[in-house]
Amino acid sequence: MRRHKIDLTTWFLAVVAIGLAGVAWAHGGIDMALDGLKRGGYELLRVTPMLIAAFLVAGLTQALVSPKIVERWLSSQAGWRGILVACIGGALIPGGPYVYYPIAGALLQSGAGVGVLISFISAKNLWAISRLPYEFTLLGSNLTLIRIALTFAIPPLLGFLAELFFGRTIVQIREAVR
């Protein structure tokens, strides 16, 4: 049985949380520190159902998508086709980072290439279709259309560059995440 070790990011966040609790205590006493911990606990309870659903979707995606499909459509060998499929997927998938990072992690473990993953995440952040109604309503059509025009080429370009410069490191990346 493999033991799970805590990674550097988790240690860093734990140290930051302890430091912030100390700062809160120093500035507002125990009441402020407890208030901050209580708010964090409420936020955890609020997002837990979404996290569970996102990780279930990620696991089911990994189980349902065969290695042949991933190799054909999303691996490093898929080239531009894989990058464009990832861009479309990133643009269409609803939800925030609680949703798309577990899916990206599942795709990584299923054999997706580094360019595909970078394209997927970039498109989600720049092209999210679910965000467009808010953007048009709150920022207006002119600003929204300018933003879309200026960011249109970025996800596929980033995917291509990621594959070009880091494509050979995907096995090491995959192993580091496991």
Describe the structure.
There is one protein chain. The protein is mainly alpha-helical. The chain has two domains: 1-49, no CATH class; 65-177, no CATH class. Helices cover 82% and strands 0% of the residues. The chain is built from nine helices and no strands. It has helices spanning 8-64, 67-73, 79-92, 97-110, 114-127, 132-139, 141-151, 154-166, 170-177. The chain starts with 7 loop residues before the first helix and ends with a helix.
Which helices and strands appear, and what pairs or packs with what?
Layout: H1 8-64, H2 67-73, H3 79-92, H4 97-110, H5 114-127, H6 132-139, H7 141-151, H8 154-166, H9 170-177
Number of domains: 2
**What is the strand tally?**
0
Mean pLDDT: 90
Low-confidence stretches: none
Over the alpha carbons, how many angstroms does the gyration radius reach? 20 Å
Q: For the report, how would you describe the main beta sheet?
A: none
Contiguous helical run count: 9
- Assign an overall shape: globular
Ends apart, CA distance between termini: 14 Å
The secondary-structure class comes to: mainly alpha
Specify the helix fraction band: over 70%
- Please trace the helix and strand order, writing H or E for each element: HHHHHHHHH
Strand content range: under 5%
